[in-house]
Amino acid sequence: MTENIRLEIVTPAKKVVSEDVQIVMAPGVLGEFGVLVGHTPFLTALKTGAIIYKDVDGKERYIFVNDGFAEALPDKVTILAESAERRRDIDMSRAEKAKERALKRLEDAEKGDIDFIRAKSALQRAINRINLAQTR
Q1: At a CB cut-off of 8 Å and minimum separation 6, what does 54 contact?
Q2: Topology annotation, domain 5-88
Q3: Among 135, 125, 136, which residue's Cα sits nearest to residue 97?
Q4: pLDDT tens track for 19-52
Q5: CA angle 100–88–47, rounded 5-degree value
Q6: Contacts of 11 (CB under 8 A, 6+ apart)
Q7: How far is CA 7 from CA 14, 84, 124, in A?
Q8: Boundaries of every domain in the chain
């Protein structure tokens, strides 16, 4: 039987995940990383992307995260994210509309009317949500 590690994913609004898992893979700012039970402790910033983990039954689960931090301990991984949602909870219509708004803002940013960095970040979030929702 595989040993499990505790995974906690928390946003300012809610606890998204709190369960024992076999492995956690996350998008660190310096590259993707994986954590198994007994991992050396570390702390890292996260970039927008997908947390992928295997539950105790070995089934892969996906969580969209928007930035944040991850703390890995030998028996627990804690993700503190600006926002996070399970793949099944992603609203494709909302994500597509957000993508369209972000693209429009980027066009306006070229005219100097909009903050380019914020518009680019909104586009990245929308694209990541859409890509994650489409992986089945």
Answers
A1: 21, 22, 23, 60, 61
A2: ATP Synthase; domain 1 (2.60.15)
A3: 125
A4: 999 999 999 999 999 999 999 999 999 999 999 9
A5: 60
A6: 80, 81, 82, 83, 84
A7: 14, 14, 25
A8: 5-88, 91-134
Structure pTM? Answer: 0.78
One-letter amino acid identity for 40? T
**DSSP strand E in 4-125: where?**
5-10, 15-28, 31-35, 42-46, 49-55, 60-73, 76-86
Domain 91-134 maps to which CATH number in 3.40.50.300, 1.10.3720.10, 3.40.718.10, 1.20.5.440?
1.20.5.440
- Counting Cβ atoms within 10 Å, is residue 92 exposed (0-12), middle (13-18) or buried (19+)? exposed
3 state SS of 63: strand
Span 106-135, average pLDDT: 74
Given 3-state DSSP classes, what are the helix, strand and coil percentages for the chain, each rounded to the nearest 5? 30, 45, 25
- Check: CB of residue 114 under 8 Å from CB of residue 79: no
d(CA 72, CA 75): 8
